[in-house]
Amino acid sequence: MVDDAGTESLRASAMTDTASRKDFYSRIGARNLKPLWEVLRGQLTAEPKPPEAAVLWRYEEVRPFLLEAARLISVEEADRRVLVLENPALPGKTRATQSLYAGLQIVMPGEIAPCHRHTPTALRLMVEGEGAFTAVDGERTSMQPGDLVITRSWSWHDHGNGGNGPVVWLDGLDVPLVGFLNATFFQDYEETAHPLVRPDGDSQARYGTGILPIDYQAAPASTPLLNYPYRITREALNALEQAGDLDPCHGVKSRYINPVTGDYAMPTMGAFVQLLRRGFRGARYRSTDSTIYQVIEGSGRTILQGQTLDWHAHDVFVVPSWEWHQHQTDTESVLFSFSDRPVQQKLGLWREQRDCN
Ligand code: 1HN
To answer: 46 C-alpha to center of ligand 1: Å?
Structure first.
């Protein structure tokens, strides 16, 4: 039987008696229990409320610090001489967005960044210098400005510089995402460099020309290609622009793929490249993948809600999840970008919205 009077009085006291709620929370807290109703609305936001901020790093400002770092610490001591691009809204978290890491790495002539492997996947977007190379599982690839170089999960890799001046590239890794999943493993190799077991250009010849070895059947999670040369990418973008394949928000935009599967080149990070003609005035766009951009060529600006990021060649900037933005250019520009889009799409979470059709 329901005791009406008792229920009424219970309700009345529940509404007024915050002290007894506090007492209740502390008693259940001691048993590792939490009242959902105190936090539910904060967690289920009506739309994404990313903790990261829109931010831009000017290459012109960062470059002298990279050279200073090269004088201050050897690559042997540093292991990787990288200045982390830390989002100012995520202090101490060593990341550019909630899920992804970005940094600028400098390697001086003759240096070798020692061989190691880890479960996080890495991408490099080569910024400046001659003579840089990365070796992945014993295959070396040289890196020219604008090249995208992939280090798949758990592959041995070391970097070097056989040129006469500094080389710099952008590192992008899924370290925060893999860390969140508690799936991080790391190992140093016993030697500084992994022995070269395949000739230069091997993966390009096997997988990167539109033909595949006849009995090749693997469907690797990450691309078997090590390098996506900018020379080829740029030519393709030019041809697409000539063909008139222009999107009102994105200009000419393509994604880097695993040529064996047609899927994204990496399972956790989507990488993209877009060509924006001189005087481009993009329509507004937003998507749920917080995105890190690197300006390969050109200059312009990205207008967000309440602020404008003015960018020049080699600058890096972040557009947070679900924030309306539009790109504009002064000169013909090429933007590289990467985000966790493949993860969101596989989980059925990714959304986009545009002010254009
Ligand atoms: C790493 O292994 C490299 O191999 C660069 O060059 C940056 C940032 C966090 C964790 C591992 C590299 C990294 C990294």
So the answer is: 36
- Scored b (16 or more CB within 10 A) or e, 21-41 reads eeeeeeeeeeeeeeeeeeeee
- Nearest ligand 1 atom to alpha carbon 151: 4
Residue 7 within a domain: no
In the reported structure, the alpha carbon of residue 156 is separated from the centroid of ligand 1 by a whole-number distance in angstroms of 12
In this structure, is residue 258 part of a structural domain? yes
Sign, CA dihedral 275-279-285-287, equals: positive
Domain containing 124 equals 55-355
Q: Check pocket membership of 117 for ligand 1, CB cut-off 6 A.
A: no
Reported as a single tens digit per residue, the pLDDT across 171-197 is 999 999 999 999 999 999 999 999 999
Residue 101 C-alpha to ligand 1 middle, in angstroms?
9
Q: How many CB atoms lie within 10 A of CB 234?
A: 16
CATH number at residue 109: 2.60.120.10
Let me know: does 338 contact 264? Beta carbons within 8 Å.
Answer: no
> Could you tell me if the CB of 175 is within 6 A of ligand 1?
yes
CA of 151 to the centre of ligand 1 (A): 10
Atom of ligand 1 nearest to the CA of 113: 6
- CA geometry: angle at 295 spanning 310 and 170, to 5°? 120
What spacing in Å lies between the alpha carbon of 301 and ligand 1's midpoint? Answer: 29
Nearest to 120 by CA among 192, 195, 189, 222: 222
How many domains would you assign to the chain? 1
In a domain, 13, yes or no: no
pTM over 0.85, yes/no: yes
The answer to whether position 45 is within a domain reads no
CA-159 nearest atom, ligand 1: 6
pLDDT of residue 316: 99
